[in-house]
Amino acid sequence: MVAVMWFRRDLRLEDNTALKQALLESDKLILLFHVNPAQFLDENSLNMSAFFNSVETFRKKVAEEGATLQIVYGELEEVFKKLKEKVPDWSDIYVNRDESGFGLERDKKAGEMFQELDVSAHGFHDHYIHSAQEIKTNAGTPYKVFTPYYNKWKERPKPGIIETDFSSKTCLKDKLFPEDMNKFQELLDDLALLPDLELGTDKAQERLDEFIENDLAQYEEARDFPLKDATSRLSKHLRTGELSIRTVYNKVMDANQTKGRSTFIQELAWRDFYNMIYASHPDQKDVAIKKAFTKVEWDNNEENFKAWKEGKTGFPIVDAAMRQLNGTGWMHNRLRMITASFLTKDLLIDWRWGERYFQEKLIDYDSASNIGGWQWAASTGTDGVPYFRIFNPTTQSERFDKKGDFIRKFVPELNHVQGKKIHQPEKLTEKEQKEYNVIIGKDYPNPIVSHKNKRKLAIKAFEKSKKVM
Ligand code: FAD
């Protein structure tokens, strides 16, 4: 039987459910990645750049193993029809299914198309520890709150690593569409450059081992402090699937290190939870889950939005975080919470604007987690932060970057500022400004809003929406 293994966000030859099955059941196997123009943002998007560089790293890995990753480029129907014309005896296709968002819609269309092409499609659950359908309330409905979901999640038996003995023996080596490969290379050349991306399965495995060895034990105490860099940084590998979630789970569980483990595993459960939420609220990218907050009157001031994006709000922790995002494509979790809260509450800017900006910039962009995180911070999501409990950016800064060294790392204008005023540089006296070589209002902005006033306005806006609904 001639089959296709269609890779999407499972860019690895190890612990891969669909690939294992495809290798077992086919006589000849075509390894394929489809570059779909419908999925591109723009070429300046760090998200796209990182994703396609992962694909390229995977293509090279497959070549090292003596096989070819066929890159096909174009609209969905066009490319698979073209493939069928080229390989008329192609009869089966193997995929790891998507359960939400763009991937789910694409898979529905693809399913119909494969029927027309007389190709049997085999779909597998692979991307999460537990699929969106697995953990339900006793009434069979999706959970709305994380804690009871997690209690059930913990009790469920966990999947082991799926041993996938990859061999290129039955894989097609000829390049079927060299012109598409060229187009893909051109796309790579045009994409925004990011240094030191460290992508691919080998790097991901190394990072996982290092994390277990060096950071897991301190994870619980250290994970909230951006400067400590104490989290796993595995998100960029998990979203492309160059690392399997089962490998992460099982290696962490098998490690000698037990300290920090349950807190880390709980984060993996959040990933499953948000996937389940997205699957049960397919319009979640555009619509607030909490109906009471669908009528919030956002201020949506363009100038404030620009200042937030550029890291020029006059709130050092927010600015440092946004500059970390713009410069590296990644932002620490605590800072994602602070910047998202600041945008939606202090600036009263629509969470969808922020969600889309993160989509453009994050090298670990994952729709379910990003939308979930934004709706959480905006209080519009299921189990979100209560609308009246608004983060104070200054106290957050004092607590999680006490000495201000994270701020200094990303906001060089404040490099010489000493003491507590690093968190509120607008309080520096003229003498101090001279001493620290920064003029507030010129070298570094005054705060663009008053947190005290904006906090009250945000609460009013949410309460007004509640009354209208
Ligand atoms: P670790 O702390 O080492 O956690 C291990 C893994 O657990 C992560 O790689 C991730 O897969 C998962 N995880 C941890 N925290 C969460 C969480 N709160 N929700 C879901 N999964 C989690 N995560 C993304 O992967 N992609 C996104 O686009 C994304 N956008 C976010 C937007 C906002 C506004 C917020 C508040 C959070 C967002 N997160 C997102 C969740 C979290 O910030 C990142 O997963 C985490 O910072 C990644 O770093 P790490 O791998 O070092 O995490």
TrEMBL record:
FAD binds at residues 219, 231-235, 264, 267-274, 364-366. Coiled coil: none annotated. Keywords: Chromophore, FAD, Flavoprotein, Lyase. The keyword Lyase applies. It is an enzyme of class 4 (lyase). It catalyses: cyclobutadipyrimidine (in DNA) = 2 pyrimidine residues (in DNA). PROSITE patterns: DNA_PHOTOLYASES_1_1 (PS00394), DNA_PHOTOLYASES_1_2 (PS00691), PHR_CRY_ALPHA_BETA (PS51645). The record marks W298, W351, W374 as: Electron transfer via tryptophanyl radical. Residues 1-129 form the Photolyase/cryptochrome alpha/beta domain. Its cofactor is FAD; (6R)-5,10-methylene-5,6,7,8-tetrahydrofolate. GO terms for biological process: photoreactive repair; response to light stimulus. Transmembrane segments: none annotated. Its EC number is 4.1.99.3. InterPro entries: Crypto/Photolyase_FAD-like_sf, Crypto/Photolyase_N_sf, Cryptochr/Photolyase_FAD-bd, Cryptochrome/DNA_photolyase_1, DNA_photolyase_1_CS_C, DNA_photolyase_N, Rossmann-like_a/b/a_fold. Binds 1 FAD per subunit. One of its GO terms (molecular function) is DNA binding. Belongs to the DNA photolyase family. This is Deoxyribodipyrimidine photo-lyase. It comes from Alkalibacterium kapii. The lineage of its organism: Bacteria, Bacillati, Bacillota, Bacilli, Lactobacillales.
